[in-house]
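Task card 7
Instruction: Convert sequence to structure tokens.
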Amino acid sequence: MGASDNWRGHRIVVVDSTGVSMPDTKPNQDQWPQQHHQKPGCGLPSARITACFSLHTGALLSYRTSNKHVSEIIRLRQQIDAFRKGDILSFRTRH
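Output:
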């Protein structure tokens, strides 16, 4: 990593989370259950994704997926090996 690839000697890592829906199949429903308030057959299975990106290059550094019952923090902790000493994390928040 060159001097221009960081900010004051630190790599900036952007953390972002989102959700996706998938085809309504039995295996998908088993692993990625739909929302509890939806009637059976009326919703799509949904997954949550938390990803870490390099702010400088936009490269995907790591990601984890889970069902809706696993928190964003747990998915982030599962990616600890993607971080280096001195990294600065930037979390994207939504209001």
